Amino acid sequence: MPGQHTRTSHFQHGIDRRVFLRNSVGVSAGLAAAPALAAWPAAAASSGANSPAAFVDSYTTNVVANQTAETNAAVRILGGFAEIWKTGSAWDSGMPLMPDVLRANMRYSVRVTTHRTDAEARLAFIHDRQHQSYAVIAGLGPLADLYKTGAKAVTGITSAPDGIPAGKINDTIPADAPAGSALGAGSHDSDLGKVAELVDTVRGPFASGNPSKFAYQYPRPWRMNKDSEVVDTGEKDALGYPVYASDVAVVPQLLRQRAEDPAEDGGFPSGHTNALHLAALAMAYAVPERFQEMVTRAFEVSHTRIVSGMHSTVDVIGGRILATALAAAALADPKNAGLKAAARAQAAAYFQEQTGTTADTLYAYAHSADLDEDPYASHALNSAGVTPKLTYVLPKRPVRDRMIVPKGAEVLLETRLPYLSAAQRREVLRTTALPAGYVLLDGFERWGRLNLFAAADGYGAFDSDVRVTMDAARGGFAAADTWRNDIGGRGSLVKRGTGTLTLAGANRYTGGTTLEEGVLVTGSRDALGCGDVHVRGGTLRTASTLRVRGAYAQSSGTTLDVTLTDDGTPALAVTRRVLLDRDSTLVIRLDDQRPPEPGTTIPVIDTPVLRGRFSRITVDGHDAEPVFTKRGLSVRLTHR
């Protein structure tokens, strides 16, 4: 405060991390006046018979009048921050409880803001001033422009000024916008009105981060130096703002956007980050064909809060945690059941009509652009961008704690994994969650440990037997889906139903695999983990060599569908025996790039013991003669 020097916090130093930015485009919400600060409780949550209500059952307590963990469910789930920081009686009198963490937090902010480029600064301005619900639309990739047209979604913030603006800047509807246009997610009176309404509902009256800001009173990084000291020089700059001896550089274009009253301008949690993730998760629910890309977009735009100098890493993590819980609560609320179903149906119908696709082909269209047109076209790059931002500078403590998924969280995957039960979606969230030991993420109900990007790739482990039934008639993900995670665990997988499931990870589960119906596709050498494989119905399809670390048995009426190249590698390598029933089929496809020459003999199954034979062997454009060897089965290709 003017005339007051120094409140020194004893924090220690942190970590360097490379900053990844793309061409991405997000608004600050002003803080309401803060009531008198309530005393911070000794514990964020209790356990046992007097445990607080689940967040999804109490999220409507998140209003400014409630600023304690006992009275506000949002403050409660962010209670992990109370292990790092103890709020004081005023905005600048808090105490660090984990100095190393908070010093690392500030030094990260210093490093990022002092090394950013002019282009990154301009982008950070756009993300700060643009409506957050509009900013995340870019995550829709090839569907983004169609969305903006169908929802009548517009923005007035498309570029950054060259220097410090003359006054504050807010997003407004451009004068040349079509009639009926709206900021943010768009107009409720549009072809995608239900989707826009869902976004606005998820970002409803109980979705603010302000109560938690007032509760924690953690200063913004531009008010602190890298050693986490708040030093007010007692002077004011040319803009009339107090001068702090801060090492964090706010982008010039945002200098006038800073709040003047620090008591009403807490940093934790980041309100922009909360809003960005809320909007992204609502859109991901309605357009699950771009689920992971929407999650990635939210992480990426939220990162520019740090680049801008307006927030620090813990602020951004806190905003994400809050948004994850708030989105789940709104989507799980029975009063929103009709709206979320209508939004999903409306989005599917609109995009299929606009693109000439079906429920089965819309996903391919939504991923049809390359990186030049769609910055989120690469799953690997998306994963690499999201993963470090899940924890930023937070250290990992040696803690073992079995993850219990928060009540209602499974609703976040309801449209992305529609063929799984609610219990199965909870298990996906549990087995893909971050490990215990990250301070702040281990708060009440563990919302911070959820990793929605990884969860969209299916199970992380089969800790018990998993039975999956997919229905091709339902279309979309219920007809065909891919699990990309490396699946561990002692359980088994049983695939049922008419749909197609692809396993693409380097899997380690040991309970074995049974295919009863439909199609099971292997996308890696170890896709079927460790254990026996039983093909009792349907088709097992391999695009490359598949290793079976156990026995392989194929029943009558089933098909093994393999692709062969000219390198002499067998399609199926089985460590134990192979049993083939009568009336089983082998379909051989020849690799387009490296097809074997006619007249050559190529191995198909490598095994120490082979019993039985296929009743039919088909090869497109060729005749195939089976050749039985000491190592299994080969085929000799001849022209028809």
Number of domains: 2
Distance between the termini: 89 Å
What sort of overall outline do the alpha carbons produce when their principal axes are compared? elongated
Q: What helical percentage do the residues reach? A: 25-40%
**How much strand content do the residues show?**
15-25%
Counting H and I runs of at least 4 residues, what is the number of helices? 16
Q: Please list the strands of the largest sheet in the order they lie side by side.
A: 7-9-11-13-16-19-22
For the largest beta-sheet, the strand count, sense and barrel status come to:
7 strands, parallel
The average pLDDT is 90
- Secondary-structure class: alpha/beta
Could you list the spans in which at least 5 consecutive residues all have pLDDT below 50?
A: 1-48
Give the C-alpha Rg: 28 Å
Q: How many distinct beta strands?
A: 25
Pfam family, one: PATR
Keywords: Signal
Protein name: Phosphatase PAP2 family protein
Organism: Streptomyces xiangluensis
Can you walk me through this structure?
With 640 residues, the chain is an alpha/beta fold. The protein folds into 2 domains: 66-390, no CATH class; 460-639, no CATH class. It contains 16 helices and 25 strands. It has a 7-stranded parallel beta sheet with strand order 7-9-11-13-16-19-22, with no helix packed on it. Strands 8-10-12-14-17-20-23 form a 7-stranded parallel beta sheet, with no helix packed on it. It has a 5-stranded mixed beta sheet with strand order 15-18-21-25-24, with no helix packed on it. A hairpin with an 8-residue loop joins strand 1 (85-86) and strand 2 (95-96). Helix 4 (118-129) packs across helix 10 (291-307). The longest helix has 20 residues, at 313-332. The N and C termini lie far apart (89 Å).
